[in-house]
């Protein structure tokens, strides 16, 4: 019911969008993929313009500052989609991304710092690519910098002028919105027609610098901006100046990809005016509609339910996020995979779900690898009902993943299906004794899950090795496998022997004669210190698992039927150990605080129970009442007003309960009480007897 207003609003917006013509299906590579298309306001079937080739243009960053988590959300998100289209659906994706290195923000920042705008832009561009590499975002096939395409931009603008959709004014060139709208074959504001009369939003896209000369219409926007003295400029038929913001993408994308483009992508905040203006410019240049067939947008990144912005001081750079030793680049990617709408809490807590999912996958692949190392195909392979059940479940989950990805790249659902595969395989292994596990079936499930995590860009390791960390970690794991297995086996047998010794010692302590108990366990107790010896051995085994091996980047886990181990980042293991220690410390503090509060409550109850019934109210309520009767019940309140009968009845009922508590205390303490107890109780509760307390006993 709560989604009804949103659905109604979306439907109303769709009804205002102009017609969209789907590409022809004839001779095209069609996979059943549907994607949310901003040009239609709904999911539409994806049909490439030519065969299986996908021409994709993505809006890149304006490089004047550090890349932040909003950039991560956009570029990791589109990287996931690009990988799915290429590596899962089998399209040949040609990706072009621009770098805006000529822009008012860059010029203004360089002027403030007294440096060259080119050096500033190159510095932050290098930082951007470094961040993208850290996040495992694939580099585009083509990078287009505005500064390297100024001639092409000038030529593109000239074509628009020639087609009568732009005009020159005092050295600047403006797009003629009215002429474009009245052409009869073009529509302005294809994705946000309801925003085209919002002059504030139109002006936001114009920037702060450059001359704003006479425009025919306040909604016309700059294609070429005449430069002020001291600003960077390039020659053009209209004089020295620089490209407007919107024109660069149209010119560079068309230069590389031509007309039409299959996919254009960017952040939702760019939809209007930037992307709508791009569409208008390109249609004006080629003088035909639908320059882009599918327009994809990512949503905002919210920080604690607020849009991320510098003004709100909730701005987090990618490097700041990755500085935390517990946060790995793939955690950010997993967060994008499991959330269709991103609301992020900075720090480890905001990544907790992603970290937990990452740990589950890492343990799962290590788990399967261990069984593959220790299990032989010489064992019986005939399927039983449990294998058929697992096989059916795996096939269903594989289909679930496919259907989810066909449905607008629904990675949250796909990730749930992959986690179900892990859960079902773990259940099968745990319920099947070693030597009876059908490894080919388990391997099929694990291989599919690993392939999908590789498609999503989470892992870089080799599929055959199922090595989750990949790279050097995979080589390290192979090299140390015999050593760790030998050490783990030695520890396992030592641990089992110590447990037998401890069991024998405990049996002897519980009344079984030591020789009989020891004989039953296969050990002898000659010096009476067997129990301490066994505990010491077990402590050493735990120390090896919890302290020594993590320092070497080895994660060892005991299981009822043996052990499993993984080669993991040493830093990750140590950081995880620190986190667990902090959680244990927090739990210990909470437990101690709860015990302290419980002790306080008990002490308070005991202090109250000491007080004789007739002195209770005069001891604890002396500030509320001024006179008491022989039973100890208040007769007058603090202002001297009589206490009502109903109130006295309630207090009388309470005194009956208190009398029982007092009598129980007398029994447990062996007597005592009276005035001394009342004074002590009042002191313990922070009260002092009122002036009427002593007189009230005789009233």
From TrEMBL:
Coiled coil: none annotated. Residues 577-595, 638-649 have a biased composition (Basic and acidic residues). Its EC number is 6.1.1.16. The keyword Kinase does not apply. Transmembrane segments: none annotated. Pfam families: tRNA-synt_1e. InterPro entries: Cys-tRNA-ligase, Cys-tRNA/MSH_ligase, Rossmann-like_a/b/a_fold, tRNA-synt_1_cat_dom, tRNAsynth_Ia_anticodon-bd. Residues 1-12, 676-699 have a biased composition (Low complexity). It comes from the Eukaryota. GO terms for biological process: cysteinyl-tRNA aminoacylation. Its cofactor is Zn(2+). Residues 48-336 form the tRNA synthetases class I catalytic domain. CDD domains: CysRS_core (cd00672), UDM1_RNF168_RNF169-like (cd22249). One of its GO terms (molecular function) is ATP binding. GO terms for cellular component: cytoplasm. Residues 650-660 have a biased composition (Basic residues). Keywords: Aminoacyl-tRNA synthetase, ATP-binding, Ligase, Metal-binding, Nucleotide-binding, Protein biosynthesis, Zinc. PANTHER family: CYSTEINE--TRNA LIGASE, CYTOPLASMIC, CYSTEINYL-TRNA SYNTHETASE. This is cysteine--tRNA ligase. It comes from Vitrella brassicaformis (strain CCMP3155).
């Amino acid at each position: 019911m709560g989604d009804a207003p949103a659905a109604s609003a979306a439907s109303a917006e769709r009804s205002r969008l102009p017609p969209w013509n789907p590409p022809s299906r004839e001779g095209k590579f069609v996979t059943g993929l549907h994607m949310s298309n901003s040009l239609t306001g709904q999911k539409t079937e994806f049909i490439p313009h030519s065969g299986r080739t996908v021409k994709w243009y993505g809006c890149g960053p304006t490089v004047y500052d550090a890349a932040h988590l909003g950039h991560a959300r956009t570029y990791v998100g589109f990287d996931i989609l690009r990988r799915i289209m290429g590596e899962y659906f089998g399209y040949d994706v040609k990706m072009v991304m621009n770098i805006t290195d000529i822009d008012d923000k860059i010029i203004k920042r360089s002027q403030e710092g007294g440096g060259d705008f080119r050096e500033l832009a190159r510095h932050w561009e290098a930082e951007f690519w470094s961040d993208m590499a850290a996040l495992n975002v694939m580099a585009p096939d083509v990078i287009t910098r505005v500064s390297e395409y100024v001639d092409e931009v000038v030529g593109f603008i000239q074509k628009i002028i020639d087609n009568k959709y732009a005009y020159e004014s005092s050295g600047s060139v403006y797009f003629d919105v009215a002429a474009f709208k009245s052409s009869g074959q073009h529509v302005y504001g294809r994705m946000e027609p309801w925003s085209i009369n919002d002059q504030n939003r139109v002006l936001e896209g114009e920037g702060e610098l450059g001359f704003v000369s006479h425009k025919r219409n306040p909604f016309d926007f700059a294609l070429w901006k005449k430069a002020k003295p001291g600003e960077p400029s390039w020659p053009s038929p209209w004089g020295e100046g620089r490209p407007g913001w919107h024109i660069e993408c149209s010119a560079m994308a068309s230069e590389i990809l031509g007309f039409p483009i299959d996919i254009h992508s960017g952040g939702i905040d760019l939809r209007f005016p930037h992307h709508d203006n791009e569409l208008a410019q390109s249609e004006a240049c080629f003088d035909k509609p639908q320059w882009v067939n599918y327009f994809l947008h990512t949503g905002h990144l919210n920080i604690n339910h607020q849009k991320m912005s510098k003004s709100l001081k909730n701005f987090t750079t990618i490097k700041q996020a990755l500085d935390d030793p517990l946060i790995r680049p793939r955690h950010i990617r997993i967060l994008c995979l499991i959330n269709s709408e991103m609301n992020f809490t900075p720090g480890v807590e905001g990544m907790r779900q992603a970290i937990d999912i990452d740990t589950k996958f890492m343990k799962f692949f290590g788990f399967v690898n261990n069984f593959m190392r220790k299990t032989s195909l010489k064992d019986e392979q005939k399927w039983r009902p449990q294998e058929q059940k697992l096989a059916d479940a795996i096939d269903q989950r594989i289909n679930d993943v496919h259907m989810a990805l066909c449905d607008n790249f629904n990675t949250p659902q796909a990730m749930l299906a992959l986690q179900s595969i892990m859960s079902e395989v773990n259940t099968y292994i745990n319920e099947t004794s070693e030597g009876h596990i059908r490894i080919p079936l388990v391997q099929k499930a694990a291989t599919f899950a690993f392939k999908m995590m590789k498609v999503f860009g989470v892992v870089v390791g080799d599929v055959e090795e199922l090595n989750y960390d990949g790279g050097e970690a995979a080589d390290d794991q192979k090299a140390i496998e015999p050593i760790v297995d030998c050490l783990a086996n030695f520890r396992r047998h030592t641990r089992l022997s110590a447990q037998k010794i401890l069991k024998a010692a405990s049996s002897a302590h519980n009344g079984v004669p030591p020789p009989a108990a020891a004989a039953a366990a296969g050990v002898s107790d000659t010096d009476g210190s067997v129990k301490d010896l066994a505990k010491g051995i077990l402590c050493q085994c735990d120390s090896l698992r919890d302290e020594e091996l993590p320092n070497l980047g080895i994660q060892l886990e005991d299981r009822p039927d043996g052990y499993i181990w993984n080669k993991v980042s040493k830093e990750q293991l140590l950081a995880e150990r620190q986190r667990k220690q902090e959680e244990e410390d927090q739990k210990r503090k909470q437990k101690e605080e709860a015990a302290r509060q419980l002790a306080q409550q008990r002490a308070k109850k005991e202090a109250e129970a000491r007080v004789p019934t007739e002195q209770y109210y005069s001891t604890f309520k002396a500030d509320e009442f001024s006179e008491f009767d022989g039973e100890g019940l208040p007769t007058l309140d603090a202002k001297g007003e009589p206490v009502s009968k109903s109130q006295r009845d309630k207090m009388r009922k309470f005194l009956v309960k208190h009398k029982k508590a007092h009598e129980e205390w007398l029994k447990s303490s062996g007597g005592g009480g009276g005035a001394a107890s009342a004074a002590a109780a009042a002191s313990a509760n922070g009260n002092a007897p009122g002036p009427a307390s002593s007189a009230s006993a005789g009233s």
